[in-house]
């Protein structure tokens, strides 16, 4: 195989047209330079230089190969430089997947803090439902993700960050906003706006109500908390959501309250794949979270 060092020797000799001068600039001996050129010529199958006692000139084949050799060296130097920049955090792209609730509430401050420290790292955020966050991390579409603790963590590392207690949201004029304590028995009297069937959030709410031998009436389903908030505010029903989205819901005009007897508390945290290493940028971002890892 033609090596990078041999290519460098060839380009230098073509430029200097002198073994003595080229060897000096390459910081090698003349015999070492001569050996490198001969080896290249053997590997390529013919002479690259015509030699005389007074000069060294490129053969037609050598002249044809010179621009190719220069381009290969440029590509090599650019590739090495890019990798060095990645390791030194002078360049890079970090792709993060996050539940919309976390992406809208907690993530911006975390990204801003990291971005101030590492301004040369580009950041891409996929704000998708929890199931797709997990799939993105496992399929290498994202390096890390923010989710509630997955039930199946066989292929994932999960690093807890905080607990989130689910709460009730209502339109501002709803009867349950009277100020008195709200119980599960109170909320089941009203129609619900719920996450789509099959989602993890829906399962947690359904499991909690089944455990309490309660049954709710679903008026409408949606796949995003933003839509659920709009539907609740419009009067379509009430909803049980993570406390993490309270500010988002209040901004839409909804009222949030705790429910006595509702016991849905889940850990929110960071997931990474067990099967592959993280980039330097991802490692730096995780370090900025100060999770004590």
Question: How would you describe what is shown here?
Answer:
The protein is of the alpha/beta class and 293 residues long. The chain has three domains: 4-87, Winged helix-like DNA-binding domain superfamily/Winged helix DNA-binding domain (Arc Repressor Mutant, subunit A, Orthogonal Bundle), CATH 1.10.10.10; 92-161 and 268-289, Periplasmic binding protein-like II (D-Maltodextrin-Binding Protein, domain 2, 3-Layer(aba) Sandwich), CATH 3.40.190; 164-265, D-Maltodextrin-Binding Protein, domain 2, CATH 3.40.190. The chain contains twelve helices and eleven strands. The relative contact order is 0.13.
CATH superfamily of the largest domain: Periplasmic binding protein-like II
Q: Assign a percent range to the helix content.
A: 40-55%
The CATH topology name of the largest domain reads D-Maltodextrin-Binding Protein, domain 2
Q: End-to-end span in angstroms?
A: 44 Å
